[in-house]
Amino acid sequence: MTVSVAPVILPNGRSVCALGQGTWFMGESPDRAQDEIRSLQAGLDAGLTLIDTAEMYANGGAEEIVGRAMAGRRDEVFLVSKVLPEHASRHGTAAACEDSLRRLRTDTIDLYLLHWRGRHRFSDTVEAMEALQREGKIRAWGVSNLDIDDMQELQGVPGGDQAQVNQVLYNLGRRGIEFDLQPWCAQRGVAIMAYSPLEQGRLLDSPAVEDVARRHGVTPAAVALAWTMRLPGVIAIPKTASVTRLAENLASLSLTLSSEDLATLDAAFPPPTRRQPLDML
Ligand code: NDP
């Protein structure tokens, strides 16, 4: 496979593939566990080493699936998990991290994210993240679902400028961040991790996306993902529990969209012309 999408370099110098693997809705049914594990492992075999999970998904069930998928190959994985806002106090973060490490069957998480902003002060969460980092339980930390005003506030907290990523909803149909949040993060080197890059599959029957896919002989999913990763510093984390769909998604890494393709997609999904509050799922 020829990879034409550049890796993303995080502020701490870690280089990660711009295409990762999501896990929301994994771990919910024992009947599907084998498919989920197989798909994550096939992704690792193909070089999709970033796996995104969270304590929230299936109440820890997704982390257990990831733990099983990583068995014997933890060193290959760039592991991302998230703490729920209600746990994100000084002590609650530490306890939640311990629980995640146990379910993930590992002793460290590469990137630990605050899932969204809750009632706990940023300063408490940042202190907890720093303590976990000193103890080696996490290697780095970041945030999710923070709009620009929250990001600015976080930067004002001691150590708050160490956030490596902001994981937000970004896809062809959700372009609001291009107006302000994405350029703000890019200026500071904070990577954007685009969640629901396929809009949970709803983007895939768009005539414009289908049209561009036909031009390149790929699937609509590959087009939607290549579009999301066209900006430097953006990582897409589609979820699939199917090795067939995984192969379709992998094709995005070798797909370069032309200016004509981008114009077709812009016409169907116009870029923002004014500030919009951050969308969330
Ligand atoms: P996605 O946009 O990744 O879409 C996932 C859905 O699309 C699944 O139903 C999957 O089904 C299907 N799919 C995947 N590949 C293809 C394909 N090639 N063709 C057709 N259908 C396909 O949505 P998610 O919401 O799962 O987002 C991705 C990840 O982002 C999550 O799994 C999670 O890790 C993270 N996330 C983070 C959030 C946050 O608040 N921080 C919020 C939401 C998501 P199947 O498995 O059957 O292939």
Query: What Rg, in angstroms, do the CA atoms define?
Result: 18 Å
Q: What class do helices, strands and sheet pairing give?
A: alpha/beta
Quaternary structure annotation? single chain
Chemical compounds bound to the protein: NADPH dihydro-nicotinamide-adenine-dinucleotide phosphate
Distance between the termini: 33 Å
Number of DSSP strands?
9
The overall average pLDDT, rounded, is 97
Helix content: 25-40%
Give the SSE order as H and E letters: EEHEHEHEHEHEHEHHEHH
Write structural notes for this entry.
The protein has a 7-stranded parallel β-sheet. A two-stranded antiparallel ribbon has the order 1-2. The protein is 38% helix and 12% strand. Helix 3 (90-104) crosses helix 4 (122-134), helix 7 packs across helix 8 and helix 7 (207-216) runs antiparallel to helix 10. The mean pLDDT is 97. By secondary structure, it is of the alpha/beta class. It has helices spanning 30-45, 61-69, 90-104, 122-134, 148-155, 181-188, 207-216, 220-228, 243-250, 259-268; strands at 8-9, 15-16, 50-52, 78-83, 111-114, 141-144, 165-169, 191-195, 234-236. The structure holds NADPH dihydro-nicotinamide-adenine-dinucleotide phosphate. The site of NADPH dihydro-nicotinamide-adenine-dinucleotide phosphate has 28 residues, from helix 9.
